[in-house]
Amino acid sequence: MLLVAACSAPSASRPHPATSPQLLVDRLAAAEKAADADSVRGYLDPEASTAFIDGEVARTQNLAGVPLESWHYRFDTGPDAPGSVAAVLEYKIRGGDRLPTRRPLVMTLTRHGDLWFVKGFADAPGSRTYRGPWDFGPLTAARTDTTVVLAHPAGNAFRDQVAQLLPAAVADVGRAVSGDWQGNVVVWLTSTDAEYSALGGSPATAAATVADDMSGGHVTGQRILFSPGAATRLDHDEIDVVLRHELVHVATRAHTRPDTPVWVTEGFADFVAYRDRGPIEEQRGDLPVDAAFSGPQANRAYTSARTVFSYVDDRCGTRAAARFYDLLAGGTALEAASQEICGLDAAEFRQSWHEWTITHAR
């Protein structure tokens, strides 16, 4: 009896027929999360291109290295006919994500008889199918209860270095910012320029922070990306500074408006990242405009913005820099923020800041 039961039980890798689009993607997602490449192959249209099928099988195998807590596909409107359809990938990385993140996809669905299949994931006019690091090769993870660092195997040494720096950096940033940030963070270490760009990085930058749109006061899907050259271009201290800078963006994004001046967001992030480590240059001009943070004058703009918060921290009281940032990031004008935090109107504030940089230049 035991032998018969064992022989007649369905194979763990044998796909169950999908008789509706939602059933199809539910079962496809479950197979991908389980790294069950054989089942995934069964949910793909056998008439699809070999490149697509092989690519999806490889993606499934790559996902085995990701500590996924959940992985689902959703349709905003249930399709009732074959063809291209907008969908959403909803997933959560264990530890790094407090809430699931949602990313757009374009699926091509087909039907043979009563059964549905996926024939492709493709870009569509006005939208681009989401790509994650699992689309660029096998992955390994280093994680704690609240942090995850994902890398491709060749980047394991850099992964371990970043993972070693994370606990102290998260703790320091958590103390420096206001709000209820719990220290959850996901870091992706890219291996090629194409991957870095596809995931949201900008050319010529060592790192970037990307996120989903904010909804209901929450920001989901925040990721710190390191460029492929960061491991060799940056020394240990520089990696620590860059990591802390990007962590500030993660910790404060929910409290920052889209129209917050760049000098506010970048200046505060640099202030927390450097603290007393960075240079202070004499300032005589006005606050840097947004455009100054790209191009040949970018370094000077970052340094200038950072000194504003260094000045406020030194002259305007306990946790003044964080309170100043919160006001400005929330839309308060400089005149009102400088008056509340430092007791100075905007003109007096600029003059006092200039004088402070002259006496503290190093």
Walk me through what this model shows.
The chain folds into 3 domains: 10-130, Roll (Nuclear Transport Factor 2, Chain: A), CATH 3.10.450.50; 131-254, Zincin-like; 256-362, no CATH class. The longest helix has 21 residues, at 156-176. It is 43% helix and 17% strand. It is elongated. The protein has helices at residues 2-8, 21-33, 37-42, 50-63, 156-176, 193-199, 230-233, 236-252, 262-274, 298-315, 320-329, 334-342, 346-360, and strands at residues 68-74, 83-93, 101-112, 115-121, 140-143, 147-151, 185-189, 207-210, 214-215, 218-219, 223-226. By secondary structure, the chain is of the alpha+beta class. It has 13 helices and 11 strands.
Could you say which overall geometry the principal axes of the C-alpha atoms support? elongated
CATH topology of the largest domain: Zincin-like
How many domain regions?
A: 3
Side-by-side strand order of the widest sheet: 5-6-7-11-8
The total of beta strands comes to: 11
The ordered H/E elements are HHHHEEEEEEHEHEEEEHHHHHHH
**Amino- and carboxy-terminal Cα gap:** 83 Å
Number of helices: 13
Average of the residue pLDDT scores: 92
Overall SS class: alpha+beta
The helical percent reads 40-55%
Architecture (CATH level 2) name of the largest domain: 2-Layer Sandwich
Largest sheet: 5 strands, mixed
Poorly predicted sequence stretches spanning 5 or more consecutive residues = 1-12
Based on the structure, what is the oligomeric state of the protein chains?
single chain
CATH top level class name of the largest domain? Alpha Beta
Beta-strand residue percentage: 15-25%
Radius of gyration: 24 Å
